[in-house]
Amino acid sequence: MNTASMQLAAASGLMSLVLFIVAIGLLAMLAGGFWLTSRVKYRESPRPRPEEQPKLPPGGPVGEVRQNRESQEVPQVHKGERPLTPYELTNMDSKPSASKDRPRWSRGSSGSFGGGGLGAH
Fold first, then answer.
1. Is-contact 71 94, C-beta < 8 A?
2. pTM for this structure?
3. Higher pLDDT, 73 or 33
4. DSSP assignment, residue 50?
5. Is the Cα dihedral 114, 115, 117, 120 positive or negative?
6. φ and ψ at residue 70, rounded to 5 degrees
7. CB 104 within 8 A of CB 68
8. Parallel, antiparallel, or unpaired: how do β-strands 69-71 and 94-96 relate?
9. Closest by alpha carbon to 71, among 102, 98, 92, 101?
């Protein structure tokens, strides 16, 4: 054997040792993760027993309510005033609509922005 092959053999032995240590470190991290998870799960409250589960109301299941709703109007900003920011608008509630007709899209419209339809031509 010459000196070059001896140096290559020594380097690969050191590389195997490094890979072995990395593998042991990964296994230790995986085992630590399982241990930590079991500790967290042990501290959680127990699952509810069958008698603690939610029950149906006495009148049976609640039915579906269908109604049309209208959104509140966005407050108008008069000329010269500062426009409202999204944070000042807060939650815009909706109210029941007086109309009982279901809203429909205009004829020839796809019904959505960018829906790919021809649109109203």
1. yes
2. 0.35
3. 33
4. G
5. negative
6. -115, 140
7. no
8. antiparallel
9. 92
Number of Cβ within 10 Å of residue 109's Cβ equals 14
Q: Under the phi-then-psi rule, with left for phi > 0, alpha for psi from -120 to 50, and beta for the rest, what region is 104?
A: beta
Q: At 56, is the secondary structure helix, strand, or coil?
A: coil
Those residues with Cβ within 8 angstroms of residue 101's Cβ, 6 or more apart along the chain or in another chain:
68
Q: What is the mean pLDDT of residues 72-76?
A: 81
Q: What are the CA-CA distances from residue 33 to residues 28, 39, 104 (Å)?
A: 9, 10, 55
User: In whole angstroms, what is the distance from residue 103 CA to residue 69 CA?
Assistant: 10
103 Rama sector, left if φ>0, alpha if ψ -120 to 50, beta otherwise: beta
Among 112, 109, 105, 103, smallest CA distance to 121 is for 109
The Cα 109–Cα 116 span in angstroms is 10
